[in-house]
């Protein structure tokens, strides 16, 4: 199936001002770039697909930064959609509604690229879009491997005891015999827009996956995450 099958691909970069884990993280520099800069760079490195990349934020300061690194900022998001409990889906649906009303624009594919995944690569974005060229998939997410089997996962009870997630499972399975387990890493979401409008979720039944390693899956949500990301950023060559 040809890669130019999609007439339009919209990538939404959600970035609000009210971060509590890492204050003002969307304005801080991580190595040589801000989180928005890292995300824009990964999209710009995709050559096989044309992607329209927009920033969704309620903050004029973040909007100005987004424009400076090359992101399109067609609107400011309502404050009501920039709260701690605001869902990612509400942000995406707001953006799609805005484009429908103001530009009569409806992309074939909708993508979400969270700026808190700074080491996501253009190669992984391209892998996801390649999968979407197959009509067997309605959506694709980025995921990382869990280096544990279900038999080694527990939750604490109210009395402080550890209880196995799967009661009666073997707590000492051979690693090489365990089934591969994956968990969403938040770095990449792609979906057919018509499917999104019907199902209101990225987690569809026909869901594909782009496997990403530990570094690429790093989600900067706490000061500890930021320290790890800074350490990794220092090992990367600076692009002139």
Write up this protein.
It is a single chain. The protein is of the alpha/beta class and 240 residues long. The chain is built from 6 helices and 10 strands; from the N terminus they run βββαβααβαββββαβα. The protein has helices at 35-44, 60-69, 88-103, 122-132, 193-199, 223-233, and strands at residues 9-14, 29-30, 33-34, 52-56, 109-112, 139-145, 154-156, 162-164, 182-192, 207-211. The model has no long low-confidence stretch (mean pLDDT 90).
Task: Summarize it.
With 240 residues, the chain is of the alpha/beta class. 27% of the residues lie in helices and 20% in strands.
Summarize the biggest pleated sheet.
Answer: 6 strands, mixed
Radius of gyration: 19 Å
Low-confidence sequence ranges: none
Strand content: 15-25%
The outline comes out as globular
Would you list the SSEs in sequence order as H and E? Answer: EEEHEHHEHEEEEHEH
SS field, number of helical segments: 6
Q: How many extended strands?
A: 10
Helix amount = 25-40%
- What multimeric state do the chains show? single chain
* Computed structural class: alpha/beta
Provide the spatial order of strands within the biggest beta sheet: 4-1-5-9-6-10
The first-to-last residue Cα distance is 37 Å
Instruction: Give average pLDDT, whole number.
Output: 90
């Amino acid at each position: 199936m040809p890669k130019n099958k999609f007439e339009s691909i919209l990538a939404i970069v959600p970035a609000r001002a009210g971060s509590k884990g890492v204050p003002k993280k969307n304005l801080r520099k991580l190595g040589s770039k801000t989180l928005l800069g890292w995300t824009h760079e990964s999209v710009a490195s995709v050559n096989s697909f044309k992607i329209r990349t927009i920033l969704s934020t309620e903050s004029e300061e973040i909007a100005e930064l987004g424009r400076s690194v090359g992101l399109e900022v067609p609107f400011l998001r309502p404050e009501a959609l920039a709260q701690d409990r605001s869902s990612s889906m509400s942000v995406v649906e707001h953006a799609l509604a805005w484009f429908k009303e103001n530009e009569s624009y409806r992309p074939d594919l909708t993508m979400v690229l969270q700026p808190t995944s700074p080491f996501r690569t253009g190669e992984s974005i391209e892998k996801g879009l390649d999968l979407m060229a197959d009509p067997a998939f309605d959506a694709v997410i980025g995921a990382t491997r869990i280096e544990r089997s279900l038999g080694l996962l527990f939750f604490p009870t109210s009395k402080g005891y550890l209880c196995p997630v799967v009661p009666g499972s073997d707590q000492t399975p051979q690693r090489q015999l365990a089934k591969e387990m994956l968990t969403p890493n938040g770095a990449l979401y792609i979906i057919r827009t018509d499917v999104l409008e019907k199902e209101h979720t990225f987690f569809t039944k026909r869901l594909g996956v782009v496997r990403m390693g530990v570094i690429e899956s790093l989600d900067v949500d706490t000061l500890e995450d930021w320290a790890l990301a800074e350490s990794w950023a220092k090992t990367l060559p600076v692009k002139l």
